[in-house]
Design goal:
heterodimer; A: 4 strands; B: alpha+beta; three-stranded antiparallel beta sheet; 1 helix; 42% strand
């Protein structure tokens, strides 16, 4: 993938990924591709959390369309090799800042909402994660409220 | 259940933070003497090597400006 064409975004917007009953491609290869992405995501790449989270849902029955989506993430990483996490020293009181958001029914198969958050300290991200909410929300307000409530609980 | 990985000591406002990952240590403090003291105390108990300013930790490259006002982490 070293010579791949860099892309600006890690995934097409509103990409529909269907649930397959039978795998179309080799599961081990697919899982290795996801594993390498997760390694980067956990350490220094909050910007691919969402896309890795989405493609990782389908590890048990991957298809050609997923391989295409995963390759797109690698192309994005190729285009952003010089991105780093940067932390600055500040004079004033240094407190962590949490940003969070949720979509509404973001999973196109079970219609559960997806929450993401990032905690920043000294201008750089220190923790981040993405997870699917446990219940189905009937409005985006409800989804966002669940996201905020869960995050506050964990932060405390 | 997990083991602790971050240890702190506040010695009259001189805060020293030691981060441990298996056999790798990082020692942080705003006071250079406090760092030297911590390192000499630790090396009197353990056989260890001082590798100077941190460049690599957990396969991540760490860079910092000379005045330590900006630190970056990257994996590329």
């Amino acid at each position: 993938m070293g010579n791949c064409h860099p892309v600006k975004t890690p995934m097409e917007s509103r990409l529909f990924l269907p649930v397959l009953t039978e795998p179309e491609v080799d599961i081990t290869t697919y899982q290795q591709l996801i594993g390498s992405l997760m390694y980067a995501m956990v350490c220094t790449r909050p910007n691919i959390s969402y896309t890795v989270g989405v493609v990782a849902h389908y590890v048990s029955a991957p298809g050609h369309i997923y391989i295409k989506a995963v390759k797109c993430i690698y192309c994005y990483l190729c285009g952003t090799l010089d991105y780093k996490l940067v932390y600055y020293a500040t004079e004033d009181q240094n407190e962590p800042v949490i940003y969070l958001d949720s979509d509404w029914a973001g999973d196109c198969n079970d219609h559960k909402s997806i929450t993401g958050f990032v905690t920043c300290l000294s201008g750089g991200a220190i923790t981040w994660a993405l997870h699917k909410q446990a219940c189905i929300s009937t409005s985006s307000t409800e989804a966002k409220f669940i996201a905020a409530a869960t995050r506050c609980q964990e932060a405390l | 259940m997990s083991d602790y990985g971050v240890f702190t000591k506040n010695d009259n406002g001189r805060l020293v933070i030691v981060v441990v990952y298996i056999d790798d240590f990082l020692v942080f403090s705003s006071n250079l003497d406090a760092i030297q003291y911590t390192k000499s105390e630790l090396s009197s108990c353990f056989d260890m090597k001082d590798l100077g300013n941190a460049k690599w930790i957990l396969q991540m490259e760490m860079t910092q400006t000379d005045d330590w006002r900006k630190v970056t982490l990257s994996q590329s």
